[in-house]
Write a structure and sequence with these properties.
The structure holds 2 protein chains of 2 kinds.
Chain A (H helix, E strand, L loop, with lengths): L12 H11 L4 H22 L4 H17 L10 H19 L37 H13 L3 H12 L4 H8 L3 H22 L11
Helix pairs in contact in A: 1-2, 2-3, 2-4, 2-6, 3-4, 5-8, 6-8
Chain B lengths: L2 H12 L5 H13 L1 H73 L13 E8 L5 H10 L3 E4 L7 E6 L3 H9 L4 E6 L5
Antiparallel strand pairs in B: 1-3, 1-4, 2-3
Helix pairs in contact in B: 1-3, 2-3
Classes of the chains: A mainly alpha, B alpha+beta.
Amino acid sequence: METRRLRFPELAEEELASLLKRLSEKDQAAFSRLFHAYFGRVANFLRVKLPGQDDAIQSIANEVLYEIWRKPDSFDGSSRFSTFLIGIAKNKLLQHWGRQDEKLVPMLDEEAEGDDDALDPACKSEAGNPYDALLNQQELNVLRDCADKRLNSLQRTVLLDRLLYGHKIEEIAQTLERNAATLRRAFQIGYEKVMDCVRSRLGLTPAQGIQP
Amino acid sequence: MNQAELLEMMADFLNGALSAKQATAFEAHLDANPAARQQLENMRVLREELVRQAEAETDAAWTVMQTRLQAESVSTGLAALWRRWRLRAGLFVAIGVAAFEAFLLLNAPAYRAAPDERETQAIQVLFAPDAPQRQVRELLDQVHAQVSAGPGASGEYTVQVHKEEAGAALAALRATPIVQDAYPRKSLP
C-alpha cells in the first residue's frame, strides 16, 4: 500500500548539521528546508496550548524558527532538534501568556474532557465493524471538511503527531506533558469522530458495511 | 485486538514503525478482516488529508517568514552601508564644519582681531574736544588703528597700529584737524 510521506520529513542528523552551518552564513535556502521540516511540528505542539488561536500559533511558531535563523549555534546537539525547538516554543508560550495575563492557561486541561469528545455508542466499533470506503472526490471533500471542523486541538495534534510525524503516544505525552492514556483516547476519539462525521454526511451507518 | 489496539497498529503500520515480523502478522490480520483493511485505507486517506493541511499551513507561514527575512535583509543592508561609510561620512562632516568656521574667520572684520603686542606700535592720540565720534571712528579705521586704552588724565587715548604701518598712521593722524597731538608711545624697559 502506497502511503504519502511528508514533503519535508524530519531531518537526519548530518543534514541538520549541514543546514545549521549554512544558516550561520544566512543561507535562506537552508533555512527554507529547515523551516518546512519543523514548522508543522512546532505548530502542532502549540495547537494544544493555544486552542483555536491560529494566528497566535503561526506567529509563535515563526518566532521559534526565527530564533534558529538568528542563532543557529544555539543548538548544541545534546537533544533531538525537535525537542530543542519545543523548548524554545515553551519559553515563547510563557512570554505570550505573560502578555495575555495567563487567561488561556485554564483552557488546557479542558480540551480533551468535554462531552463533545464522548464516543457515540454506535461508533465504538471493534475491528470487525465496518467503516465506509472513501472512494471519490466528493467523499474526499467531506473528509477534508470533517477533519477541518470536527477535531478539537488535542485530537488534531495527536493525530498529526501520530500519523504525520510518526511519534509514539509516549513521546507525544512527554512533549505535551500529558497523560499517555488521555492521548491514546484522544487519538481514537479523533479518528472516529472524523469517520463518524464522514459517514453521517454521506448518509451511511456502521451497520451498512463497507463495499471493498 | 480491540479498536484502540487496531488503530495503534494501523498508525505504526502506516509509519513503517512495525518490525518485519509484526508487519507480516498485521498483513495476515488484514487479509482475514476486510473491515480492518478498509479502516486502514480510511486512516491512510485521513493521513493524506492531514499532510495536505499541514503543508498548506507551513507554506502560508513560510510566506510570512520570507517577508520578514526580506525586510531584515533591507535593514541589514542599510546597516552595513552605514558601517562602511560612517567614517567617511564623519570625515566629510568634520571637513565641512572646519571649512565653514574658516570661512567665518576669514570674513570677520579685521579690527576685531586682537592685536599682538609684539607686532603693534602704541600711539598716544589727543583728539580735539569737539571732534565728532563718527569722524574719530572713521579716522581710526582709515589708519587701521584700534583703541586699547583711554582716555587718560589729559584726555589722551592709546591706539595700537601695526608696526609696519606705524609711521604712515602717525603722519595721517597728525595731518587730521580733529587730532590735536599724536606721538609714539615708548615701550617700558
